[in-house]
Design goal:
Order of helices and strands: HEEEHEHEEE
Number of domains: 1
CATH topology: Trna Endonuclease, Chain: A, domain 1
Distance between the termini: 80 Å
Radius of gyration: 25 Å
Structural class: alpha/beta
Strand content: 25-35%
Number of strands: 7
């Protein structure tokens, strides 16, 4: 093979690499745009689900003996460069109910919420001396997610007709985390 042919082949290969690189960059850009669109849709869907839950929170927990005095949506706290966001926070003088809301609730969502509950004290010290109760809510609930949440001591809230209800039976006793200063 002559030097001229080798140079031509090298240039052709180099051009193919450049074209491939360009296409990878275009694909990356499309993926970023698609992810942004998906996040926009899921964010709106999540707010819709929260919108179903928030008006019912006081009634739901009153039926379980917890008189809710205040309800906060998307409560955020920052500490040491980290952030925690709680979808719905229901509060009275004795209890704080920390609710994670998902359009489709899965076992991993429950595990993440349990972790969040274990760190709640560090992010929300203003609720010292109150019992912390966890709850998870979903319009659709994956198989075993409700059972796992129940066994983990969490209230499970699901859709019932045009509203939501606590799915745990009347014998259920929630796991409470006592937070002291």
């Amino acid at each position: 093979m002559t030097d001229q042919k080798m140079a031509k082949n090298f240039q052709e290969i180099w051009n193919l690499f450049k074209e491939t690189d360009k296409r990878f960059k275009e694909t990356d850009q499309r993926l970023r745009e698609t992810n942004q669109r998906i996040e926009a849709i899921t964010g709106k869907w999540g707010r819709f689900v929260e919108g179903l839950l928030v008006p019912a929170v006081e009634r739901l927990f009153k039926d379980r003996g917890i008189e809710v005095e205040r309800v906060f949506q998307r409560a955020r706290a920052h500490k040491n460069g980290r952030q925690m966001e709680i979808d719905v926070l229901a509060v009275n003088q004795d209890y704080v109910v920390v609710i994670e809301v998902k359009s489709t609730l899965g076992v991993e969502d429950v595990k993440e919420h349990l972790k969040r509950l274990s760190q709640f004290k560090a992010f929300f010290p203003e609720y010292a001396n109150r019992k912390v109760i966890g709850a998870v809510a979903g319009i659709a609930i994956d198989e075993n997610a409700d059972r796992f949440a129940y066994k983990s001591g969490l209230f499970v809230i699901g859709q019932s007709g045009e509203t939501v209800r606590i799915l745990n039976d009347e014998k259920f006793i929630p796991r409470t985390l006592v937070i002291s200063p």
